[in-house]
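Quick illustration, no need to memorize.
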Amino acid sequence: MKENPNRYERHQNQRALAKKNRAKNKHINKQDRLAELDNRWLEYNADTDISDVSTGIVVQVKGRIFSIMSGDDFFESKLSKLIPVEMGNRLVIGDKVRLKFEENDEHAQIVGREPRKTTISRMRGDKDRVSAGSEEKHIIAANVEVGVIVAAATDPVFHPRFVDRYLVALQNGNVEPVVCINKCDLTVERPKIVEWYRKLGIPVVETSAETGMGMEELKRLIRGTISALVGNSGVGKSSLINIIIPGMEIDTKTVSGKTGKGRHTTTSSALYRWDDESYIIDTPGIRSLGLSNIGKNELKFGFPEFDMYSPECKFNDCTHNHEPNCAVKKAVNDGLIENSRYESYLRMLEE
């Protein structure tokens, strides 16, 4: 039988619990505040005289200066003094903003933001804290129509679970996915899971920035859209953009020989135009993609291969994990669902 803690231990436990609750409440209040800021943009849009403004796309963010593209013009802008600075902190690459040009002002004034159609986001954690309250939703880019998940055939090693995580993240943000297997000149071997992605109807393109292999197909898949290249560091995202946009010279680096992991080359997102009505966003390499903002009951919808079998599960709210008479688990055991995909699902479910 466990002994009752002494008064000092009880005091320490109460302090720890109180600290945990304060952190949790602070996190909830912060998330509510961020959602409120996003909603307030609608109010500013309503107050703006549309006939007196122009529109543009945020192509780069440097502190409180926003690089804007409007038609063929590129210029810098600042947030209007009528809009709180913290709302400007919520602007990201791809946001479509309303602009006002004042005489004798070197910067255009951002006076509104159009509602976002799509987002690419992840949960970003505070490294100094381990509680759930240390995470916050970080939007990487907005209004992206096609998300190109870039993975290397080798160097660095192909990680299907990371691709699976991005597939879920893109679907959660209403972004159409494309899987790009890059560095195909380095090996004739292809990850087994690639054929499964094709069976699911996900476009897959095999490329090489060195030889130009597959580049025309990749261009065809993203032409006429706002697309974003996402993936681990070192898989060759910047190298692909250097091929897509002639004359572009984005810095690239090799994979670390000690760790076998990619080195960060792009440190912030940036948007480029490469053809008529065709834009591409280069995003920083991400080594961890948190998905804790996606509920457990929603996660299964990121795995469309479950849809055929889930109606036969005993429970309507089956999570396909511990429940008896689960048709999805049976399909996995029968080889009808790729086992590695199911394992990816379980790992995400446990987070």
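The radius of gyration is 23 Å.
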